Automatic annotation (TrEMBL):
The lineage of its organism: Bacteria, Bacillati, Actinomycetota, Actinomycetes, Kitasatosporales. Catalyzes the phosphorylation of the position 2 hydroxy group of 4-diphosphocytidyl-2C-methyl-D-erythritol. This is 4-diphosphocytidyl-2-C-methyl-D-erythritol kinase. The gene is ispE. The active site is at residues 10, 138. One of its GO terms (molecular function) is 4-(cytidine 5'-diphospho)-2-C-methyl-D-erythritol kinase activity. Pfam families: GHMP_kinases_C, GHMP_kinases_N. Keywords: ATP-binding, Isoprene biosynthesis, Kinase, Nucleotide-binding, Transferase. Residues 205-277 form the GHMP kinase C-terminal domain. Its EC number is 2.7.1.148.
Length: 298
């Protein structure tokens, strides 16, 4: 018997970053949108204990030890329910690694749901969300999907209504960016400046509720973008190329280096992707709709 869970990537349509807290984390106001690029995690009983395998174009960059978020999720659930984590987790990886699209977090949420179903633990949704929040700031959203506002360090979620489907293009870069390094650069650039408390933008929430791509394009923001561009200046050209190809908005996705382009419709997204694919800074350019549902047992 095995259980497979499909889980989406995310884009932040707003990422407002506050000053660093005493615990080193930053207070955030994060508006997440789940988008149709997916990983799959299959959980199968394993007689020789916890085992992780992975395939897909970025598989070589995925750790197969207990630092993998999928492994950490299985261990956390096993510990709560007093059982041995005798499970083989196979990750079919399609979400770019270290791309600012929460791929690792997605696998954590998927593994948790898959092990929960395989072991029949009967954990409720609140308990699963609790474990997700312990695993990482972006993990609860990967379970929930759709669209949500994340506050605290991003893990306290309020689900949001969205009035339509938005069409995106995601360009992966030829090298990765580490999320902690981008936050350190944010702190360096912010030195000596007053950082306002992060708050969700009401015009942006209205644009989502209306499903209006022009209004969303006018309101998307990412406070980590200057830090990501400072560490990866070539991304500035990628963003400009996307705007020239007709994107309504161009932004760094989360901590980058994936860049996200909002298109008017599916056809426009395909055209933008075709124009961005040959760029020297692009590894891939893919289209995806959002919002889509969170982690789902197949
Ligand atoms: P975020 O958007 O949440 O900041 P990200 O998309 O930039 O994250 P990930 O793909 O989640 O980055 O990976 C960041 C690092 O986490 C990787 O370089 C890898 O070492 C580690 N990692 C742990 N588990 C996984 C996993 N299941 N898949 C990919 N990377 C993982």
């Amino acid at each position: 018997m095995s259980v497979t869970v499909r889980v989406p990537a995310k884009v932040n349509v707003q990422l407002a970053v506050g000053a660093a807290r005493p615990d080193g984390f930053h207070e955030l106001a994060n508006v997440f949108l789940a988008v149709g690029l997916y990983d799959e995690v299959t959980a199968t009983p394993s007689p020789d204990g916890l085992r992780i395998t992975c395939d897909g174009p970025d598989a070589a960059q995925v750790p197969l030890d207990r630092t993998n978020l999928a492994a950490r999720a299985a261990l956390a659930l096993a510990e709560r329910y007093g059982r041995t984590p005798d499970v083989h987790l196979h990750i079919t990886k399609d979400i770019p690694v270290a791309g600012g699209m929460a791929g690792g977090s997605a696998d954590g949420a998927a593994a948790l749901l898959a092990c929960d179903a395989l072991w029949g633990t009967g954990a409720g949704r609140e308990e699963l969300l609790d474990i997700c929040a312990e695993l990482g700031s972006d993990v609860p959203f990967s379970l929930v999907g759709g669209a949500a506002l994340g506050t605290g360090r991003g893990e306290k979620l309020t689900e949001l209504e969205v009035g339509g489907t938005f069409h995106w293009v995601f360009v992966t870069a030829t090298r990765g960016l580490s999320t902690p390094a981008v936050f350190r650069e944010f702190d360096r650039l912010a030195e000596g400046r007053d950082i306002p408390d992060p708050v969700a933008s009401q015009p942006l929430l209205d644009a989502l509720a209306e499903g209006d791509p022009d209004a969303l394009a006018a309101t998307v923001t990412n406070d980590l973008q200057p830090a990501a561009l400072s560490l990866f200046p070539e991304l500035t050209d990628t963003l400009a190329a996307g705007r020239a190809a007709g994107a309504l908005a161009a932004l760094v996705s989360g901590s980058g280096p994936t860049t996200a382009f909002l298109a008017r419709d599916e056809q426009a997204a395909e055209k933008i992707a075709a124009e961005l694919r040959p760029l020297a800074t692009s590894r891939t350019a893919r289209t995806a709709p959002g919002p889509v549902p969170g982690a789902t047992v197949l």
